[in-house]
């Protein structure tokens, strides 16, 4: 999970090759900001996708001041990326094991609704698999 680097993009389309490549970058977080024209069922593996409805639920007062169908909506993604990095930094404990920190980070992201609960289920299952190998 990246601690301080993010790519923030707006999109009204389904993911293309460039977005898939950004989502696959190691040590980077991709944040995709939707607009009114964005397909309702648009999702992207490896990215934090912010639908218009999700943007309205964010704690940023400036969200409602940004015009629809305008690149200025990217600023909402910039704020969300900064907030995510702050949650991650606060969750990491120096000296803790990687497994403990990974669990702690995802739990914090789920609590802040920056990751879905299914992410926590996958992390826990993966950590159990790793523990059995040890």
Description:
By secondary structure, the chain is mostly helical. The protein has 2 domains: 74 residues, no CATH class; 43 residues, no CATH class. It has 5 helices and 3 strands; from the N terminus they run βαββαααα. Strands 1-2-3 form a 3-stranded parallel sheet, with helices on both faces. α3 packs across α4 and α4 packs antiparallel against α5. It is globular, with a radius of gyration of 16 Å. 20% of the residues are buried. The model has no long low-confidence stretch (mean pLDDT 86).
Describe this structure in a few short sentences.
With 134 residues, this protein is mainly alpha-helical.
Q: What's the average pLDDT?
A: 86
Order of helices and strands: EHEEHHHH
Binned strand content: 5-15%
Question: Structural class, judged by helices and strands?
Answer: mainly alpha
Morphology: globular
CA-based gyration radius: 16 Å
The count of domains is: 2
- How many E strands? 3
Please, how many helices?
Answer: 5
Amount of helix: 40-55%
Distance between the termini: 22 Å
Unreliable stretches (pLDDT < 50, length at least 5) are: none
How does the major sheet shape up? 3 strands, parallel
Write the layout of secondary structure elements.
Layout: E1 6-10, H1 17-24, E2 29-33, E3 47-50, H2 52-57, H3 74-91, H4 98-111, H5 117-133
Parallel strand pairs: 1-2, 2-3
Helix pairs in contact: 3-4, 4-5
Write out key terms for the chains shown.
single chain; globular; three-stranded parallel β-sheet; 2 domains; 47% helix; mainly alpha; 134 residues
């Amino acid at each position: 999970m990246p601690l301080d680097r993010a790519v923030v993009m707006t999109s009204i389309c389904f993911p293309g090759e460039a977005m898939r490549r950004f989502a696959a970058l190691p040590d980077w977080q991709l944040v995709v900001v939707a607009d009114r024209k964005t397909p309702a069922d648009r999702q992207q593996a490896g990215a934090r996708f912010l639908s218009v409805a999700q943007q309205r639920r964010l704690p940023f007062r400036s969200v409602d001041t940004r015009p629809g169908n305008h690149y200025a909506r990217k600023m909402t993604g910039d704020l969300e990326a900064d907030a995510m990095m702050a949650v991650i930094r606060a969750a990491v404990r120096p000296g803790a094991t990687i497994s403990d920190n990974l669990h702690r980070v995802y739990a914090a992201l789920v609590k802040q609704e920056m990751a879905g609960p299914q992410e926590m289920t996958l992390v826990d299952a993966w950590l159990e698999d790793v523990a059995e190998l040890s």
